Amino acid sequence: MGTVLAVERIGKQYGKKGMVSKALHNIGFTVEKGEFVGIMGPSGSGKTTLLNCISTIDKVTSGSIYIKGQDITKLKAGKLEKFRRDELGFIFQDFNLLDTLTATENIAIALTIQGKKAGEIDRLIREMADKLEITDVLGKFPYQMSGGQKQRVAAVRAMVTNPSLILADEPTGALDSKSSTLLLDSFEKLNKDLQATILMVTHDAFTASYAHRILFIKDGTLYKELVRGNKTRKEFFHSIIDVVSKLGGDSNDVF
User: In angstroms, rounded to a whole number, what is the distance separating the alpha carbons of residues 234 and 42?
Assistant: First the structure.
């Protein structure tokens, strides 16, 4: 299938001598094309810092991160911006939709920046919107949509450029249970039908149970890896709960 993401012994620290805080230490793992990988850990464990480094929002202190064989830690500003635009798709907890634009216009921005023609933009948006079942809201503004609809619009925006890697940061955090399930079913469909490669940070065991495997982060290091294998989603959910209980700390920070 091919390796999409390779994280090699990365570290991240903040501050200066005498006042150094280590957020990540010697973390390494790979993600293959078509995988759906979750990242979990207690509050302050480093999971969001890890995602920020992979997404190029933050820079590592040591180590390397390869996406499709390219070391993104060595890219200069101009090339990094182009790489982020062409190879990465982002889904955030708070949707990040522009209130003054319709769903179609919000989605179209990334394609316009890539230089796609109007007819192609319309076709790509409708094809992806149909897969996530949101064609009925394409003409609506964010204030006219439910939270679940807004997040699925955000998912279409992330996927429509056909990126190498989708990065989702607490994508169900602002959704009710029904909307969360609809979104996660959409992720599962995109992963299965389009071989979308997804890396998702979540504190929620139910959300994590949709992934193929889970990387648990504790105190800035890789604590454990849990693979779903042939387990049902319900069985995987209980396996996740078992690991979380062993992580310790405040369970409200993890579930």
Answer: 22
Please answer whether residues 148 and 89 qualify as being in contact, where contact means their C-beta atoms are separated by less than 8 angstroms. Answer: no
Q: Are 155 and 132 contacting, i.e. CB atoms less than 8 angstroms apart? A: yes
Percent helix / strand / coil, the chain, rounded to 5: 40, 25, 35
Q: Which tens digit of pLDDT belongs to each residue from 7-64?
A: 999 999 988 777 888 899 999 999 999 999 999 999 889 999 999 999 999 999 999 9
Q: How far apart are CA 13 and CA 106, in angstroms?
A: 35
Partner residues linked to 227 by β-bridges: 213
pTM over 0.85: yes
Which among 33, 22, 41, 36 has a CA at the least distance from the CA of 216? 41
Amino acid at 243: V
Q: Give the pLDDT confidence of 114-140 residue by residue, as tens digits.
A: 889 999 999 999 999 999 989 999 999
Q: What pLDDT sits at residue 200?
A: 96
Tokens (6 digits) for 181: 């399930």
User: 53 with 12: CB under 8 angstroms?
Assistant: yes
pLDDT level of residue 254 (50, 70, 90 thresholds): very low
Residue of 146, 140, 171 whose CA lies nearest to 158: 171
Which residues are CB-neighbours of 124 under 8 A, at least 6 positions away? Answer: 111, 116, 160
Burial 174-191 (b: 16+ CB within 10 A, else e): bbeeebbbbbbebbbebb
Which string of DSSP letters, residue by residue, matches 91-148? E-TT----TTS-HHHHHHHHHHHTT--HHHHHHHHHHHHHHTT-GGGTTS-GGGS-HH
* Both tokens assigned to 74: 């060595």
Written as one letter, the residue type at 130 is: D
